[in-house]
Structure of ATP phosphoribosyltransferase:
Amino acid sequence: MRYLTFALAKGRMAKKTMELFEAIGLPCEEMKDEGTRKLIFVNEELKLRFFLAKANDVPTYVEYGAADIGIVGKDTILEEGRRLYEVLDLGIGKCRMCVCGPKDAADKLKHHELIRVATKYPGIAKDYFYNKKHQTVEIIKLNGSIELAPIVGLSEVIVDIVETGSTLRENGLTVLEEIVGLSARMVVNQVSMKIEHERISRIITDMRALIQSREQDGR
Ligand SMILES: Nc1ncnc2c1ncn2[C@@H]1O[C@H](COP(=O)(O)OP(=O)(O)OP(=O)(O)O)[C@@H](O)[C@H]1O
Ligand SMILES: O=P(O)(O)OC[C@H]1O[C@H](OP(=O)(O)OP(=O)(O)O)[C@H](O)[C@@H]1O
């Protein structure tokens, strides 16, 4: 039997993702040890391999088949635009991708003015403004603390993730338009889906059942 390899996005969703796999009987708790420099965890008995990777790299590993299955945010899937199957919404890491800015930027959007858009997600921003809204904008790529951009005059608006809304509120910004709802998704390599259909389908079915039962319990 060949190994089934899982690429999990590092960061805020990693712990919950590992808990979900544990709960369906696919142990990966070894990875929780933050002290280790070991990159890949092998379960000889179940013929499984797990690794954590930068979220942006997860779709790459999965498209090339270096991982059969990946867990990553919908934002990253949209941004990377890789060829893979998105098979399940894990219901964790729920947030929204939004156009945000100071209240007075709403008029600029409404009148389709030429504005600058700062974002960590240039692909999503481009798709939204050019293809969906037919608005010409200048997109400026940033790597973090995106809310700073309209405050210091780098851009009129931002495209960024909003969860609780605290970052916006504390910086005098607001949601102007909602682009899409986000959460963690399971993605599968297109060839693996065929050659490992039985094992992968079982994992999807077990994970779906777990998520549904947790949602019913209000967890
Ligand atoms: N409030 C939130 N802010 C950002 N991402 C969130 C939030 N809630 C859920 N997510 C999900 O978590 C992922 C980001 O995780 P995390 O914040 O650990 O990475 P990051 O800091 O953006 O990555 P990097 O350090 O590489 O820039 C997003 O892709 C998104 O799907
Ligand atoms: O609506 P909220 O609950 O406030 O969450 C949203 C904020 O969290 C994320 O930033 P993150 O903490 O990942 O830092 P970063 O800006 O440096 O990427 C995101 O980019 C927003 O800034």
In short: The chain is about 35% helix and 30% strand.
